[in-house]
Amino acid sequence: MNNPHTLRRSWYEESARGRLSHLLDADSFTEFLGPERRETSPHLALFDLPRQFDDGIIVGTGRIDSRPVLVAAQEGRFMGGAIGEVHGAKLTGLLRAASKMRRDIVILFDTGGVRLQEANAGELAISEIIRAVLDARSDGVRVIGLLGGRAGCYGGGSLIAGCCSALVISEQGRLSVSGPEVIETNKGVEEFDSRDRALVWRTMGGKHRYLIGGVDAFVEDDIAAFRAGAIAALQRPATLDHAVLEAEQTRLEDRLRHFGHAHDATEIWARLHIEHPGEIPEQDIETFLTTANIHRESADAAR
Question: Where are the alpha helices (DSSP H) in 166-284?
């Protein structure tokens, strides 16, 4: 029988439950507040919108490479993985449990940000989640984020991701505070054309985020690769103190100073002394990693 962790499965194409079932050790997952509990949004019916019995996020416990972890997986196919009251409460509760149990947590991000129909509740949920992430990290818990889903990781979801101990991303992953449509709506198509997929991935995609040190590991679009990335991330130091925060602040100031006036990702890549920056989007993973690991800005000092 084939080992399920050696079969190639696209992280991008899988559902949240599919990702979890192949990320975790076989038969190790126990779900908290599953669909049978009918914990649905109290707000969506007011807008005559369909509800989902897990409210777009799956939380529970399992093992990765025999290591006990808590896990949360957002379902980007339900309302773009947007975060509302129940969705947020499930993730906050899991993070608080991680603090009490001193157990590392892995979050499978796939979200467009706050659910607009639950704007106030969603914004509060983001704040509560961020607080819970930092509390967990202060208690010595590793909070690992995996990014490579259809919805990307935008808005409040990106702020949560930025507070994690380590991030693993694929080329298909996108990470940005503002999504392409939001930028275009507020600043115009001349500023950012959300239909230009090459521009979107060049600006927000996994390769760019890895090159500028916004994430810690770059993997191919394969669940086994994400599993290996999560295993490696769970070995990283769990420290969160003033020295870590000061190093992160310094790194971000340096990034702004070096790249703040660049008009395109290719200009940033050129400033990283990459010889042919325009070729980055077309490079296969091995070629890209060879280039990136020589020239990228490192996030290690601040993590």
Answer: 180-187, 197-204, 206-211, 223-233, 242-259, 265-271
One-letter amino acid for residue 6 of the chain: T
CA-to-CA separations, 79 to 32, 112, 117, 152, 215, in angstroms, rounded: 21, 8, 10, 13, 25
Q: Output the pLDDT for position 34.
A: 78
pLDDT at 302 over 60: no
> Do the Cβ atoms of 148 and 126 come closer than 8 Å?
no
Q: Does the pLDDT of residue 162 top 70, yes or no?
A: yes
Helices 119-138, 85-101: axis angle to 10 degrees equals 10
Backbone angles phi, psi at 114, to 5 degrees: -70, 140
CA distances from 77 to 11, 17, 53, 72, 214 (A): 13, 11, 14, 15, 25
Domain spanning 16-238, CATH class: alpha beta
| Residue given tokens 């892995």 in the structure block | 106
Q: What is the CA radius of gyration of the chain?
A: 19
Tell me how many degrees the CA angle 125-170-206 measures, rounded to the nearest 5: 80
> Which two tokens mark 40?
């649905």
**Domain extents in the chain:** 16-238
Q: What is the pLDDT of residues 205-221, one digit of tens each?
A: 999 999 999 999 999 99
